[in-house]
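Here is the promised in-class demo. Please do not try to memorize the tokens; focus on the logic of going from shape to residues.
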């Protein structure tokens, strides 16, 4: 049976320090990763119960997109009164294109979301980004803003009838 000699304390610390120095360190991400497509939705007409309302959907991209289209994916409790998809074609980097959709809002009821999706062929495959307009029974949302943390800020106002 072979006996090992004890390693003196000061050498143990050096050996442990060398072993710890060779361990991989945790990776720290410093990049601000953002989706390359941004979408905004604006009501072009006053929001009123039973009204026909046009929504302007603006798509902007940080990369070139081919075969881009905007789809009205869900009208909520509203009725689609026009096309539910609009072809935008090629969307160049840093440029915007618009599509307009029309829905008829219900005469009564609760909150409804009118939802849209922009889809295009990016440099590494298909890219898609959604957006929604929150139509409240007492008024629309205004100034829909997406923050860097991904939260949405959407103040609302009351409609006086």
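The designed amino acids, position by position:
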């Amino acid at each position: 049976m072979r006996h090992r000699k004890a390693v003196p304390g000061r050498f143990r610390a050096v050996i442990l320090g060398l072993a710890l120095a060779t361990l991989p360190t945790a990776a720290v991400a410093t990049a601000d990763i953002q989706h390359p497509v941004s979408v905004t939705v604006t009501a072009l007409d006053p929001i009123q119960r039973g009204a026909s309302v046009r929504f302007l959907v603006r798509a902007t991209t940080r990369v070139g997109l081919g075969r881009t289209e905007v789809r009205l994916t869900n009208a909520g409790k509203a009725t689609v009164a026009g096309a539910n998809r609009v072809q935008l074609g090629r969307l160049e980097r840093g440029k915007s294109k618009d599509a307009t959709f029309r829905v008829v809002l219900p005469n009564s009821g609760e909150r409804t979301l009118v939802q849209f999706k922009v889809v295009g062929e990016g440099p590494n495959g298909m890219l898609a980004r959604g957006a929604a307009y929150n139509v409240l029974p007492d008024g629309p949302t205004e100034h829909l803003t997406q923050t860097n943390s991904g939260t949405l800020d959407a103040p609302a106002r009351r409609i006086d009838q």
